[in-house]
Each structure stands twice: as C-alpha cells, then as structure tokens.
Amino acid sequence: MDPLIRFKDAHVKGIIPDKIYDLVVERFPIVVAGINRIEKASGIKYPVAYVEPSLVLSSPNLNSYEFGILFARTIPVVFDDKFQVVIQISAPLVAYGLKGTIHAILAHEFLHFLELMRKISKMELLSDEISGNLFENVYTDETRLFEPRVVFKDRTLLNHITKKFPSGFRDYKLEDKVMKFWADKNLPKSNISLDSNNVKLSAESLSKIQLVPEFVSKIEQLEEKSSKIRQKRLY
User: In degrees, to the nearest 5, what angle opens at C-alpha 30 toward C-alphas 151 and 102?
Assistant: First the structure.
C-alpha cells in the first residue's frame, strides 16, 4: 500500500492544492525515517501507516465547542474477517511538524499499537472504556501506555517523546501553524467525537485474530518491565 495514496487522490481531485501537495511529498521522507528509526529502536515492525489528507479535530461530542487536534491515530480495522492496525498520520503534521515532533508522535502511536495488541492478546478489548473529556482522555492515555524507555533503545528519540508528551501532547507553535496555514485556508477538515475514537471488537472477531507467539512474548516482556518501572515510582 502506498502510504500517500489517499493524499495523492485528494490532490488529483483538486481538494489539496499543488503547493501543499509538493510540501507534504517533499517532507514525507521524514516520516519514513521516523518509522525506520522506531523499528530499529524497538526491534518490532511498525504497523501500516498512511497520510490522511485532512486536519482531524476531536471533541467530547460533535456539538461541542471544545476541540483538540489529532495529528495521528491508531485505528484497528477488520476487513473481510482480517484484522489489521493502521496508523493514520494527518497531512498537516507532515507539512508543518519539526522532525523531532513527527518522530515523537509516530513513536507515541507505536505505543498505542503495542497497547492495542496487548489487549487483543488478553481478550480485554470488550471492556475497554474511553473518556468523553479531552483532559481525562489524555490522563488515561498516559497511564495505559508502555514505558517508552523500555520499548525504545534510542536516547534522542526518548528525549523527543519526553519533551512532547509530559502529560499529553501539546506543541503550540505547530498548532498555530496548522490553524493559520491549513484550517484558516479552508483546507480539508475531519471532525470526530472522542466516543467514536473507541475500539470495540466482537468476541467472534477477537477469536479469529492470530498473533505470532514471538510477538506476544515480546509484548509480555515489555509489559512486565513497564510495570516494574511504575511500581518503583510509587514506592
């Protein structure tokens, strides 16, 4: 799958102007380098990723004035009874994000991917809950993810993650750029409710998912090491 296929299609249809198209295509190698870096630092293959040709905005509900920018999302997909995890990367992030920011967000979504696969391996997804409040959702996000220093053997990458995600991602300069050069130019936007960003799979769908034993073992090791680090923080 060409990770730029949806973006290229939007350009062909005239939805994405030439200037933005050229900018994203020119900067996309930063994303590729980030994915390669994460795979090398973790020893785990990165899931399928693609560039979403819109600015993705989230809110507690579709009628709310409170919103946040989702620069990337981890999305589980079941198609023809086959399960796959896809990382959606917003075009504005590729266009305006600094290298360190892009890599940090890619790494953060990779942690979401690992958490999702952990839940699937233990059949925990049916009871998963998500908060409708942006702040609460950030807090839940931080308490669930694997410890980055356990997953990634890359000091610079870890520094990027620590700086960008002390308590949920915020990059005011990037957000200002995106609002000025994307949102205010009436480029494509997608609005979603946080409730629609939830993951629920049927027991039947879960039972059909086959995970490689070595991968499950790796996740269990990372989970155990992450748990030990968190216990040390408490005592």
Answer: 55
pLDDT per residue over 102-139, tens digit each? Answer: 999 999 999 999 998 998 888 776 545 445 455 445 54
Residue 235: DSSP 8-state:
-
pLDDT in tens, 202-231: 667 777 788 899 999 999 999 999 888 877
Residues 132 and 112: their CA atoms lie apart, in Å, by 18
Q: How far apart are CA 66 and CA 136, in angstroms?
A: 13
Token duo for residue 181: 């050069």
**CB-based contact 192:58 (threshold 8 Å):** yes
Q: Cβ of 137: how many Cβ atoms within 10 Å? A: 18
Q: What tokens appear for 155 in the block?
A: 């000091």
Express each pLDDT in 85-107 by its tens digit. 899 999 999 999 999 999 999 99
- Name the burial class of residue 50, with classes exposed (0-12), middle (13-18) and buried (19+) by CB atoms within 10 angstroms of its CB: middle
Q: Under the phi-then-psi rule, with left for phi > 0, alpha for psi from -120 to 50, and beta for the rest, what region is 186?
A: left
Strand partners, 195: none
- Retrieve residue 121's tokens: 């391996």
CA angle 8, 54, 170 (to 5 degrees): 130
